[in-house]
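Bumping my old thread because nobody answered last time. Still need a sequence for this structure:
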């Protein structure tokens, strides 16, 4: 009897530790409206559209790369700002490359390399207003995106809606009001 009790106790400790170490903990009770992170989804076909548009406000800057007097600055989940940096005292936003689900940027052999949701894309920029998709490798980042089921900017105690990948490609997270958000960051 004592051996069985010890086994049950150690199993309970193991389950408790796994629970505490998990990134997302589903709540059971209804909590009402809360400020929470909400996943923003895109339809798989729609997210593949990449355009060069007028400059946009920098709201949630991420990684950047400097190439030949220009800075390519990621706007997390949305795309890349193209900034002329020929005069460091007066940087000028030139364009915004709308790339849904973009978090990564690099430059190689005259091409801007970025992620477009789960895909890896190589972009040519023949002039300041045109962007062409030179190549696309689908689903390179799919498992990484699905594994990242907690908002990257969330802190301990934040509520969020648990992602549902049947609703589309998770492009980014935004804070807003959610009714009974299911998950909370530990």
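Sorry it took so long. Here it is:
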């Amino acid at each position: 009897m004592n051996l069985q009790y010890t086994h049950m106790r150690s199993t309970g400790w193991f389950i408790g530790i796994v629970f505490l170490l998990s990134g997302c903990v589903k709540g059971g009770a209804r909590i009402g409206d809360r400020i929470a992170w909400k996943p923003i989804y895109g339809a798989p076909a729609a997210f593949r559209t990449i355009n060069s548009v007028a400059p946009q406000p920098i709201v949630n800057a991420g990684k950047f790369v400097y190439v030949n007097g220009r800075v390519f600055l990621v706007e997390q989940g949305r795309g890349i700002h193209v900034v002329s940096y020929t005069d460091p005292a007066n940087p000028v936003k030139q364009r915004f490359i709308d790339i849904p689900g973009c978090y990564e940027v690099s430059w190689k052999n005259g091409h801007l390399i970025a992620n477009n949701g789960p895909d890896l894309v190589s972009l040519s920029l023949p002039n300041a207003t045109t962007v062409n998709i030179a190549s696309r490798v689908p689903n390179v980042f799919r498992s990484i995106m699905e594994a990242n089921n907690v908002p990257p900017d969330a802190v301990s105690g934040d509520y969020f809606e648990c992602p549902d990948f049947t609703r589309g490609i998770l492009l980014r997270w935004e804070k807003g009001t959610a009714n009974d958000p299911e998950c909370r960051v530990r």
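Residues 1-22 have pLDDT under 50 and may be disordered. Let me know if any region looks off to you.
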